[in-house]
C-alpha cells in the first residue's frame, strides 16, 4: 500500500534519513521502532509531505506522493495523528472534528461522518461541546484519532499515540487500533517505543537506527538480539 524507496532527507546540512526503504503492506499494522532521535518522526513527516525529501520515492496506492502538497495528501485518504496530538485546545470536540472534513476530496456530509465517528468513539459524543483543552490525555488522543478518521482513511499513520497516557487508556487505544484494522480493514503505520504495545498491536515491525532502516519483519520475528542491538538504551 505504501512503499518508500531510497529516501534521503536533510535538515539543513544534517543528513537525517539515509536511503530508507519501508514497505507498509495493505491491511498490516506496521510498527516503526527505534531509539530517540533516530529519524522515526522525520520519516512519517516526510511521508506526509510536511518535511521535504531530497531523493527517493514515496509510492502510495501506485501514486508517487513526492510533489503532491501535504493538504492534497490528506484527500488521498491518508490520516495522520502527529506526535503531541496537536488538537485545538480552545475549540470544542465537535469543532476539532469538523476541521478534518475540509480535507476530504468527496462531498461527504459532516452530519453523516460524525455519527460514524461518535459510534466508534462514544466518549467524544459525550464530550462533544467541551473544549479540547479540557479533555484528559487519553480523551485528547481519541479526539486526534477521531479527527484523522473523519477523512475516512485507508491508511492511518500515528506518531507515538501512547506517549504520556495512562496504562489502562494505552490498552484501550491498542484495542481501538486492532478493531479499526480488523473491522474496517484500516492499514495502520505507527511509531511506538514500548515493546509490549508494539508486540500486541503490531503485525510487522521496522527498525530505524541513525537514519537507516536496519531490520524489518513480522512482529513474531522481533528477536531479543534485535532489541538489544537497536532498541535498548
Ligand atoms: N526540525 C528539525 N530541524 C533540525 N533537526 C531536526 C528537526 N527535527 C528533528 N531533527 C533531528 O533529526 C534527527 C531525527 O529526529 P526525529 O524526531 O525524526 O527522531 P525520532 O526517532 O522520531 O525521535 P523521538 O523518538 O525522540 O521522537 C534528530 O537528530 C533530531 O535532533
UniProtKB/TrEMBL annotation:
The keyword Transport applies. Pfam families: ABC_tran. Keywords: Amino-acid transport, ATP-binding, Nucleotide-binding, Transport. SUPFAM superfamilies: P-loop containing nucleoside triphosphate hydrolases (SSF52540). Residues 2-233 form the ABC transporter domain. InterPro entries: AAA+_ATPase, ABC_transporter-like_ATP-bd, ABC_transptr_urea_ATP-bd_UrtE, BCAA_Transport_ATP-bd_LivF, P-loop_NTPase. One of its GO terms (biological process) is L-amino acid transport. Gene3D superfamilies: P-loop containing nucleotide triphosphate hydrolases (3.40.50.300). GO terms for molecular function: ATP binding; ATP hydrolysis activity; branched-chain amino acid transmembrane transporter activity. Belongs to the ABC transporter superfamily. This is Urea ABC transporter ATP-binding subunit UrtE. It comes from Solimonas marina.
